[in-house]
Amino acid sequence: QVRLVESGGGLVQAGDSLRLSCEFSGGSINTYTVAWFRQAPGKEREFVSTIRRFGGGTYYRDSVKGRFTMSRENAKNTVTLQMNSLTPDDTAVYYCAAGNTIILSSIGDERSYASWGQGTQVTVSS
Hints:
Elements: E1 3-7, E2 10-13, E3 18-25, E4 33-39, E5 46-51, E6 58-60, E7 68-73, E8 78-83, E9 92-99, E10 115-116, E11 120-125
Parallel strand pairs: 2-11
Antiparallel strand pairs: 1-3, 3-8, 4-5, 4-9, 5-6, 7-8, 9-10, 9-11
């Protein structure tokens, strides 16, 4: 099974940017649909974004559209999440997840993803 390791989190001020990375091992990342989820303290885990396998498109939750960009770096077996114009509402642990056969209507459902990373903390101060 594939393994995923997130990195790039940190403490930043509102308006700053961060780039998160999700590095794969045990498989080729372009064969997986990859998603980012996040969980803030005391809240449910929520979908952030996803990129479909084999050059498929990207999808984002409304609150991050225009600020976050997900992309692939296949040569590094890595996917990234570029996060701009961060706000305190973006503070959460961010998780990378991967799955193989995921129908379009289920790409935002955490149950669709079999492999998960350990998470990386993003904290945005006012």
